[in-house]
Write a structure and sequence with these properties.
Layout lengths: L3 E5 L6 H12 L2 E4 H9 L3 H8 L1 H14 L6 E4 L8 H8 L2 E7 L2 H8 L14 H18 L2 E4 L5 H9 L1
Helix pairs in contact: 1-8, 3-4, 4-5, 6-7
The structure holds shikimate-3-phosphate (S3P).
Shikimate-3-phosphate binds next to loops.
Length: about 160
């Protein structure tokens, strides 16, 4: 059976960028979870959070993961909260390998600073806040991961090659 690759990790760790590179270099089909959910719901992530609530968004994530079960040769760029639900982790494990992308809080802040589309970080774009949320999530990320890949100061192509190895 061909395996799918799931990219998990905190916002700003490069999941989207690395997924695109895995497509470009190795021909994997990209599933960008956030984008697919936005298309299905006909609204942006901030609007989904504001109008339907975070719990609703989280259930969209689980539904989408269930649907991917019949597919292969995918690289799935997960939203930063996906690996926090045990059910999601079980679904990912049954379909392939889970790669945790990491970055320092400094790198993360640099990458998310000008972005308005991450409701979880609204009003929390400081090193201290990012460190706190990262610390809260880290046990779940680490538990879910088959491998860890640090993304600081690395090119996407280098990271894609490292993951395929
Ligand atoms: C979230 C991360 C976002 C998006 C949503 C919630 C999170 O995805 O799914 O804003 O809880 O970490 P990215 O990690 O792609 O920014």
């Amino acid at each position: 059976m061909e395996q799918n690759i799931f990219l998990i990790g905190f916002m700003g760790c490069g999941k989207t960028t690395v997924a695109r590179e895995l497509n470009r270099l190795f021909g994997l089909t990209v599933i960008e979870m956030d984008q697919l959910i936005e298309e299905r719901e006909g609204m942006s992530i901030p609007d989904i959070f504001a109008q339907k609530g975070e719990a609703y968004f989280r259930s969209c994530e689980t539904t989408l993961l269930r649907e991917l079960q019949r597919r292969s040769n995918l690289v799935v760029s997960c939203g930063g909260g996906v690996a926090l639900r045990e059910e999601n982790v079980a679904l990912m494990k049954s379909q392939g390998r889970i790669v945790l992308l990491t970055a320092t809080p400094e790198t993360i802040l640099e990458r998310v600073r000008d972005d308005q589309n991450r409701p979880v970080l609204n009003g929390k774009k400081t090193i201290t806040d990012i460190e706190a949320l990262l610390a809260l999530r880290w046990p779940a990320y680490e538990k879910a991961a088959d491998i860890l890949v640090a993304t600081d100061k690395k090119q996407a192509a280098e990271l894609a090659a490292e993951i395929m190895r």
